[in-house]
Amino acid sequence: MTTAKQPGSTAVYIDPLTDFGFKRIFGTEPHKDLLIAFLNSIFNGQKHITELSFSKTEYKGDTINGGGAVFDLLCTGSSGEKFIIEVQRSNQKNFKERALFYTSRLISDLAPKGKRHLWNYELPEVYLVALLEDFELEAPSTGTVLHDVGLCSAGSGIRFYDKLGFI
After folding, report:
1. Is a pLDDT exceeding 70 seen at residue 1?
2. Which of 43, 94, 126, 132 could be bridged to 47 by S-S, CB 3.0 to 4.6 A?
3. For the chain, which residues make up each domain, given as ranges?
């Protein structure tokens, strides 16, 4: 059965680059398959994500006055990897610092409280996937739309640590 659009009615669309739109389209259990497909396309075969669970998005600071972070989405993959997903529509002067802060905040929160000697600093993979509109990460612009940033040796360019990435 098909339904014709009524004359004079207005179609309603969700903008996927707003916080509300992105969370509505990708950040709910019924639409989890869309987020999995999206992440798999971004990782282009480097990772194969088959399952995700949504995690808390608010991380309180160490003091009352600061140090907290609120992510747009935070997901955990079936292998324990963490994916912070951020949507940023306007230029933010310190976005790179914010990306480092967010991943650092998540990583520090993953450390167990007490009995750290049993933990041995075994960290899961952590990725920050940022969807950016209307600003460049590089100056001058290279025209690149997908950046895969990781920790590399400044001298050789060889990846130093492959469990932290910024895309």
Report:
1. no
2. 43
3. 19-166
